[in-house]
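Page 37, continued from 36.
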């Protein structure tokens, strides 16, 4: 009888990263959590998994505003948030000696609220609502009311102030160093536009040829799906029921629209296949990246994972037996917004402009801008 060789864990060699990485002692928690963990999910899919993605945005914005003299230490910064930005802004204020006031979405749970309050933020939370359009509009009205009552507050305007793009230059430098010289497709939720747009704009500024693939829920006005209603509600943080000026539509090469069930399939599948516990927007991007990567094996697909899955435990992960099999799912490929339909649609966007407030008809099969790779030529 032969025995199977065993490895003595005490003498097993460490990974190359373990042997060469120098330990770092940070001065503030934001330095420790702002950068993502990079995980290769397959040969051409890499996940950038954050604890709180918007720490980059909040730190960059607050630092820039202080340098410009727009805000001063001790001043109160206020904004509306569905959760991730609220925590990021509270952490940035904690670091830079500023006060923080959050007008919180109905989706902000007790765990998040407790963290915000202990960090020193004051919180106004919207009453329960099944209509996230009313929730978003109500939050904006509340912020305007606060500014009228307390004019010394500074409204961060994460949805509209381009200062939030500045923090993602650091993320771009990290990606550029970790994935050098490869054709790159960034796959991420559109959201406010700052994370995916800020990353790709900075990467293109470094001379990288990068495709940007945006993920949207049905019901969002940002890329024309406001005529649909997802019965399980707009996925918080990846779409919007109101126009966001920070979304630069002409940065995007392709769009995918998914319903809640498909995002859930992606999130549960990510945990099941790769042991990564992440939120719904990560799940949606993971599902989309898998489909795109199979069609484009010559490109590396970077999935942006904005947060962990903790706030989705009951709504998503406790229902994992209901999750669809990601391997059986594929989008309906369309060429015009008029053909958009649930549960999953995909469309080449070709870096076009789009006026959300006027919502003009989008022409079918538009011409790509000069230099933009098409479906036929994007694989080297």
């Amino acid at each position: 009888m032969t025995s199977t060789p065993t490895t003595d864990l005490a003498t097993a060699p460490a990974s190359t990263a373990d042997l060469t990485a120098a330990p770092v002692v940070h001065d503030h928690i934001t330095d420790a959590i702002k950068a993502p963990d990079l995980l290769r999910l397959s040969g051409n899919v890499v996940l950038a998994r954050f604890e709180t993605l918007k720490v980059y945005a909040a730190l960059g914005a607050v630092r820039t505003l202080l340098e410009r003299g727009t805000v001063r230490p001790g001043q109160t910064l206020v904004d509306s948030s569905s959760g991730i930005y609220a925590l990021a802004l509270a952490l940035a204020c904690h670091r830079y000696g500023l006060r923080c006031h959050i007008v919180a979405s109905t989706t902000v749970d007790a765990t998040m609220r407790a963290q915000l309050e202990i960090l020193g933020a004051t919180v106004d939370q919207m009453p329960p609502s099944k209509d996230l359009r009313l929730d978003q509009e109500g939050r904006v009205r509340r912020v305007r009311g606060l500014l009228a009552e307390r004019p010394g507050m500074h409204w961060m305007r994460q949805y509209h102030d381009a200062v939030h793009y500045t923090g993602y230059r650091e993320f771009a430098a990290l990606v550029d160093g970790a994935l050098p010289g490869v054709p790159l497709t960034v796959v991420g939720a559109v959201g406010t536009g700052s994370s995916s747009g800020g990353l790709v704009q900075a990467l293109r500024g470094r001379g990288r040829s990068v495709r940007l693939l945006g993920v949207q829920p049905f019901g969002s006005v940002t890329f024309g799906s406001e005529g649909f209603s997802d019965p399980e509600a707009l996925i918080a943080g990846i779409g919007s029921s109101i126009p966001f000026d920070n979304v630069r539509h002409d940065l995007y090469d392709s769009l995918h629209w998914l319903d809640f069930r498909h995002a859930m399939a992606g999130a549960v599948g990510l945990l099941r296949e790769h042991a990564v516990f992440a939120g719904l927007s990560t799940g949606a991007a993971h599902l989309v990246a898998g489909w795109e990567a199979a069609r484009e094996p010559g490109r590396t697909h970077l999935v942006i994972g904005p947060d962990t899955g903790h706030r989705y435990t009951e709504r998503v992960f406790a229902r994992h037996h209901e999750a669809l099999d990601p391997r059986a799912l594929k989008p309906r490929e369309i060429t015009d917004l008029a053909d958009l339909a649930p549960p999953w649609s995909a469309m080449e966007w070709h870096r076009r402009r789009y006026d959300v407030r006027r919502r003009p008809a989008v022409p079918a099969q538009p011409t790509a801008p000069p230099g933009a790779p098409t479906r036929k030529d994007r694989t080297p």
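The radius of gyration is 21 Å. Flag for discussion at group meeting. Residues 132-149 form the longest helix (18 residues).
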